[in-house]
Amino acid sequence: MAARVLVSDDLSPEAVAVLKQAGLEVDVKVGLKPDALEAIIGDYDALAVRSATKVTAKLLEKASRLRVIGRAGVGVDNVDLDAATRRGVVVMNTPGGSSVTVAELALAMILALSRHVPAATASVKAGKWEKKRFQGHELAGKTLGVVGIGNIGSVLVDRALAMKMRVVAYDPFISAEAAAKLGVERVELDALWAQADVVSLHVPLTEQTRNLVDAKVLARMKKGALLVNCARGGIVDERALADALASGHLGGAALDVFEQEPPPADHPLLGLDGFVATPHIGASTEEAQSAVAVAVAEQLAAYLNHGVVKNAVNVPGLPREIMDQIAPFLPLCEKLGSLAAQLAPQGPSEVTVEVAGELAAAPIRPLAARTLAAFLRHHLETPVNDVSAPAVAKERGIAVREVRSAEPHDYASLVTVTVRGQGGEAHVAGTVYGKREARLVRVDGFRLEAVPEGHVILCENDDAPGVVGNLGTALGAAGVNIARISLSRLDDHSRAFAFLNVDSAPAPGVLEQVRRLPHVRTVRSIHL
Ligand SMILES: NC(=O)C1=CN([C@@H]2O[C@H](COP(=O)(O)OP(=O)(O)OC[C@H]3O[C@@H](n4cnc5c(N)ncnc54)[C@H](O)[C@@H]3O)[C@@H](O)[C@H]2O)C=CC1
Ligand SMILES: O=C(O)C(=O)COP(=O)(O)O
Questions:
Q1: What is the CATH number of the domain that holds 485?
Q2: Strand ranges across the sheet with 455-461
Q3: Which residues line ligand 2 (CB under 6 A)?
Q4: What is the pTM of this model?
């Protein structure tokens, strides 16, 4: 059955075409009330949104089939990321697609403010001719302070330099060299507020940036300075901004985004001269909307059809060539996680995934996540997948260690899973022959070569003659067909081990019979 995608915001129609082309079923239902969306979300594997749809924890609770949310745009503050991650839902955005468009709006705001374009337009339309009132300032030679020089901030820097402005920037996550390459001087925030004739904000809304521009900061800005926010409502304290504008300390302010959208009619900024506003249209050009819609559709299709994660904000993404490298090992990790769970001691407290040999050059995180998800599924009723597994393990106090070792051991690549718990440890290891043949090569101290699949009987016994014959006879008499058998013993011959792939699960009585056979120490039946 084709996966189903719900488009719940006003995306460019190109998105639908791309999704359908990829063989997906698409419904477009824009502007649904939360209740209506909650009522239908359970039918969909994927959700495509802009900023209008609020993807709350409550909505996600109803989204039993949902695997991925695609945001056609940048900011994902309308999505409850923690809730999505806990439920194993990948959240993707489309960085870069709208950068030029948003930077151009910021530049438009700066020009509009410095030359009073909106107020002068209103004045002319009112039949006035107020040349003196609308005398402005040149931008050339002035200092622009950019807070956040990521995708959008750096495009604005480029445009501002072309306007012959000097640009200073604050971004703690960009090196001084990278900033210098852009042609900006990296400064601390205090210096930025003090030096800038124009400040433009291009940071996400986070705990660190909420109310970043408050009354204190506004007071530190130069008299007559201009402030532009085309990033997110909540980064600027709007009441304090209204005071700074009304007092004449700021020369002008422009907002594309508000704490509450749309702002209430009695919002203190709306009646002020020198205030310019647009209704969150930063990304609203034909070019940007086409780019982000196509990007989100392609990303959703790549995930739903091939498991390829691109531009995810809550899980690490992998390029296709890396995905191709690790893909053959993911089913092995699933089997190792499942086997480790069935052999694990009570109260597991730590799961270690060690990758050795050629595979150690690839990222371990996705392999560890797959192992952990399979491990946790054996212990929990709630669904767990690769996305939610790390968060679920953390919630349950299970530490996860990822270890990389270049040592090839006896195999080109080897994945070893160790579980520690109250009652001791369990170790299992496996490899992949060619691109498809997963092999289990170690169970605790025993070396073997077994196919980790289907119904399995594990039998530990004394290293004595006749055990395997007895086992075969007992199982044969019970109608349990042995498909494959892999034998092993410890180097000191103190114990031996048999891994039997069988065509059906043995009844409990049959296992009990096997357990009573001479020299048999333990026997258990598992399913992989
Ligand atoms: N008005 C609109 O319609 C649109 C608004 N946006 C907003 O613009 C923001 C920026 O978008 P992009 O440039 O594409 O994102 P980006 O992730 O490329 O850049 C954000 C930059 O902010 C920096 N940063 C993060 N925390 C910071 C802090 N506390 N102080 C200083 N710098 C910090 C990061 O290091 C990064 O370089 C988005 O988060 C979104 O909220 C984006 C698109 C459209
Ligand atoms: O991409 C972003 O972060 C935006 O703010 C654009 O929002 P929108 O898609 O126009 O609702």
A1: 3.30.70.260
A2: 482-489, 496-502, 455-461, 520-527
A3: 50-51, 73-75, 98, 280, 282-284
A4: 0.81
